[in-house]
Amino acid sequence: MPSHSSLGSALRLLEGPQTLGKGPAFWSGFVVVLALACIYPLFADGYDVGNNVYFFNWAFMALGLSLIWGYGGALSFGQTAFFGVAGYAYGVLTINFGDAYGFTFVSLVLATLIAALFAAVLGYFLFFGRISGVFLGIVTLSVTLVLERFMSQTAGPEWHIGSARLNGFNGMGNMPSLTIPWPGGDVVLYPDVPLYYLTLALLVLVYLALRMVVNSRFGNVLVAIRENPQRAEMLGYDIRRYQLGGFVVGSALAGLSGVLYTAWGNYITPSSMGMTQAALPIVWVAVGGRSDLTTTLLGTLLVLAGFQALTIYGSQYALVAMGFLLVVTVPAAPSGIIIGIGSLFSRGLKRRKAREAR
Amino acid sequence: MDFLSSLFSFAYQAGDAFAFLVLSACGLAVIFGMMGVINLAHGEFILCGAYVSTSATHLGVPLPVSILLGTLVAGAVGMLLERAIIRHLYDRPLDTIVVTWGVSMIATQGTLILLGSTMQGTGTPFGSIEVGGYGYSVYRLVLMAAAVATLAVLWLIFTRTRFGILARATIQVPHIAEALGVNTSLVYSLTFGLGAGLAGLCGGLYAPTMTLVPTMGSAFVVEAFVTVVVGGADIFLGTAPAAAILAVVKAALTSWEGQLAGQIGLLVAVIIVIRVLPRGLTGFILRERA
């Protein structure tokens, strides 16, 4: 059957030249980690489990940045802009139209699409203007900073969309959580065990889908552009389209993060698009190892956990530590700490590290 | 008379915007032109200049001297940073940007921890003059003069001094400059210091006009980024004309819709400009359109 074989060839893309980890050893490890993540709520308090969904919320943005920056070689410093736009869009949509009939999930999709559309418009000007790496970074960073300042001054009652007040610097709150329509009472996904499973499932899905994307023809071209844009162009690829495609997908994932975060905490503020917040995804992705999805994911969760632990001593100390982490890792381990440490034990990783250091 | 006074008002606003753009961008532009790197800790060098000069003023040092002090301290810190970290990353320009962002985080949060959430300002000196019924701050006029003077001094440095000639040689072809006996690593170090010092100058000059908080650098960076993006690599062919054009755009939008509209308009203008002129005004003037 053709459908069967196309499914098979799609599944084969789960392994390939652009992703670390292959064969039974990697996948049994993957299953073990997934199983541990699945049984974790059985051993923990529902409240803690709900809080830990927080870590997963950010991972989508990190994976998206890995696609744009690690695979595509385009520095986007303003992923938080898409995070914020989608977060606010979710708030506006759900406050206006409520949470009945599964509309929260429609809002999730719509808000993510709005972020993707915003990324497509911005990306058109950037990539079709053939902006080089440095300028791309600072223009995207400027966009997120200006958005932050814009949202910060929307405190007055005249700033509203429908019945949703934007509330300026204090941020928008009281939007409904994700809600599954169910006969005999809707299931509201408060930060608790069901939301944990939903977010985990989404994360696994996105991770596997991205593995297929980067190992597909599209992903290979993206990597070819990162390695040498002129060469890719000479081989007949319209590099602008590929870069724009990667940018839109990655930014949509940042948007998804924004929606999940807003629905999780029922809250979004302008500072989620500020300078400090914009730096954090860069830290996670650079420290973990931006050029691979798996190291990005592990690194992000690791750094977030460390950040959370340090926040007990005050968040400004934690931010100083994040800054140091960036200043130390980037020069010392350009391909991230996971590949850096792994290369001490594995020859394959050592070769990869040597290749990336060039 | 009414027309003349509104003309003066617009010229004053445009001049004010021009001064702000030039002063906040020239340090960034010097480093970018030299190394092709955007220093994301730029805002924190501005912060450094502002805090040092304000502290000096509180201690009774006259304002011009304390601004100079802020400039020198920021420049020295910049050279130190170049020696300690940036130097090791010259072959990886994109990583340099990321590292300077880390430095920026450390500096902002470190200032917050060590010096608290705000520092007492000194107040704007010189009072104001009245033209056509409206009051205008004299200090703002001083800032405009300072912006022009800074450009003039930079012009003299890059065209009339030995350092300037060596720096331009290093920008053009680093390997040949080195082969001819230029100590390029010293030139890089001095240039980075010059860029950081200019940021410090900006901080010192604007410190009396604003609230001193650890995040004050980010009030400057968007304008600085935008000016450098529109301007391109050359400070005289790029940054200065870009600042002039953007100042008119910003002043027009600000007087029409307010401060924020000016900023948003600036950003939109930039995004459109880079679509048309990817190498900025420098590229347009030098006819090397991509």
TrEMBL record, chain A:
It is found in: Cell membrane. The lineage of its organism: Bacteria, Pseudomonadati, Pseudomonadota, Alphaproteobacteria, Hyphomicrobiales. The chain crosses the membrane at residues 25-43, 55-74, 104-127, 134-151, 195-214, 244-261, 267-287, 294-313, 319-345. InterPro entries: ABC_transp_permease, LivM-like. Keywords: Cell membrane, Membrane, Transmembrane, Transmembrane helix. Signal peptide: none annotated. It is a multi-pass membrane protein. Pfam families: BPD_transp_2 (PF02653). This is ABC transporter permease.
TrEMBL record, chain B:
It comes from the Bacteria. It is found in: Cell membrane. It is a multi-pass membrane protein. The chain crosses the membrane at residues 20-41, 61-81, 93-117, 137-158, 186-207, 219-248, 260-277. The keyword RNA-binding does not apply. Pfam families: BPD_transp_2 (PF02653). Keywords: Amino-acid transport, Cell membrane, Membrane, Transmembrane, Transmembrane helix, Transport. Belongs to the binding-protein-dependent transport system permease family. LivHM subfamily. This is Branched-chain amino acid ABC transporter permease. It comes from Jiella sonneratiae. The lineage of its organism: Bacteria, Pseudomonadati, Pseudomonadota, Alphaproteobacteria, Hyphomicrobiales.
